[in-house]
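Entry for the shared binder. Reason: the reviewer on the internal report wants the predicted structure included alongside the sequence.
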Amino acid sequence: MNDAEHLDGAAESLPPDPSGGISSGEASLGEATLIERIIPRMLRNILVVSVLLLGPMFWYDRWAGAIGFAFGAAVSYVNFRSLTRGVESLADRIVNRNSREKGGRILLRFMVRYGLVAAVAYAIFKGSSLAFRGFLWGLCVPAAALMVEAVWEGYTAFRRVS
């Protein structure tokens, strides 16, 4: 048996490709476009959920809670947007060695995000406990937006199957 026959036999004994014949480059391209669609939808979900929950927050905690909730939702939106940009630039920095983005600047943006949350939380906490409670609820808005996104993805997955 020569080398070519040996290699042909080895190729025949390989298990089938689990991706259904899609090369890894095509699969990662499909995942990249999926993520590119999810991030803007998540940002939109955060805005929609914030607006929808502002009414019940006003009804439950009046003006102080509603204003705190609005600030918390705004900080959540800015925080999520900054997080996605930071992760993208960090991934670009790791993958692309010739990246113009400095590692220290990426780290500084991560730290500024937490500083923003802490500063707004401290200012609201000193002002009103109801506003602080609303602020904490506003910080939870991305979790609700993620639940909406999960329901949407489940719906589209079941719709594709049938």
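Summary line for the report: The radius of gyration is 23 Å.
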